[in-house]
Every structure is written in C-alpha cells, then in structure tokens.
Amino acid sequence: MKDNHSSLAVLSFTLLLGLLANNSPFVSAYDPSPLQDFCVAIDEPTNAVFVNGKFCKDPNLFVADDFSFLGLKTPRNTGNKVGSNVTLLNVDRIPGLNTLGISLARIDYAPNGGLNPPHTHPRATEILVVVEGTLSVGFVTSNPNRLISKVLYPGDVFVFPIGLIHFQMNIAKTNAVAFASE
C-alpha cells in the first residue's frame, strides 16, 4: 500500500509541476537567434563555412553586389504554354539572401489568360502586389475545401497562406505584372 501512495504522490507532484510550468509567467518560447547576421552564399568552399546548403563567404569580403539584383524592370517572355514567366530572386541570384528566409519574384502574364498555374509553397506564406494589368487570384482552403478568390488591379495586394494551393491569372486584354515575396 505504501508503494502505491508514494507512486501516486510522485505522479501528482509531476502533474503539478507540469501545470505550473504551462501557466507560469516565467515560461517562454522563441525561435533561436541565428549564429550570425547572414551568410552570403558562394560556390567555392575555400576557407568557408557550410550553412543552409551553401558555403558562406568570408564576412570581410562581402560587397554590395552580394545583396542586389539589377533587372526586375525588364519584361520577360510569356510565349509559353501557360502564358507566364516567373523571374525568381533567391539565393542563386542574390547570394546575400542565404539563410534570411525570404525571396522575391517578378511574374509576367500574357494577355487573356496568362496563368501562374496552381502551386503551393509548403514553408512560406506569399504576398503578391499587382503593378500592371488585372489578375484573378485565389487559393483553396483545406478544411473545409473552399475557393477564396478576388480580382486585383494595380496597387492591390493579396496574401496566399502557407501551404495552400493558389494561382493567378490575367483576365485582361493587356499584359500584367506582379511582384511576389515569400
């Protein structure tokens, strides 16, 4: 009988500690701080550190070009079967983006149905701003399955939640351009 009482006491004490820890004002959770400010990606690993699938450039050798891209003002060819062209700016085009968790894209749409086909981003929410033309945009919720859609005009913004299937389509007789970040 004594063993049952002591086991019950230990269990009760453990549960009490768990409840106090969950309701305590001293308990906190947060994302860990990065080990460094950023990691400019390089292809050559000479005296480099490997982070996030890329080698990092020596911090004393960073230059402004590691953090910039010139050319998003240039329209892209939409003469393909979907009628769109995505110019993605990720770590491959801007090495300074490595480990920062963000990317940017220019999306050009052909007139009358240029489409950025249904797709998903399993690790990021996307925000899109229309700068030219008229786009029909939308995403499908998972529970319940519903289409959330809207027609956007220049200056309008739309958010596609993380992991949900989404699309954009040009519904005008002119070209359309949007910028998206995730």
Written overview of the protein:
It is a single chain. 12% of the residues lie in helices and 32% in strands. The protein is built from one helix and twelve strands, in the order αββββββββββββ. It has a single domain (1-181), classed as Jelly Rolls (Sandwich), CATH 2.60.120.10. The mean pLDDT is 85. The longest helix has 22 residues, at 2-23. The protein is mainly beta and 182 residues long. The termini are far apart. It holds the Pfam family Cupin_1.
Task: List the SSEs and their pairings.
Elements (H helix, E strand, L loop, with lengths): L1 H22 L17 E2 L6 E3 L2 E3 L27 E6 L14 E6 L5 E5 L6 E7 L2 E6 L6 E6 L4 E4 L5 E5 L5 E6 L1
Antiparallel strand pairs: 1-3, 2-3, 4-5, 5-12, 6-11, 7-10, 7-12, 8-9, 8-11
Distance between the termini: 61 Å
CATH class: Mainly Beta
Task: Give the CATH topology.
Answer: Jelly Rolls
- The total of beta strands comes to 12
Q: Taking Cα atoms only, what radius of gyration do you get, to the nearest Å?
A: 24 Å
Give the strand line-up of the largest sheet.
4-5-12-7-10
Instruction: State the oligomer.
Output: single chain
CATH superfamily assignment?
Answer: Jelly Rolls
List SSEs in N-to-C order. Answer: HEEEEEEEEEEEE
Q: Number of helix segments? A: 1
CATH architecture annotation name: Sandwich
Mean pLDDT: 85
Work out the strand percent.
25-35%
Helix share bin: 10-25%
Structural class from helices and strands?
mainly beta
For the sheet with most strands, the description reads: 5 strands, antiparallel
Poorly predicted parts: none
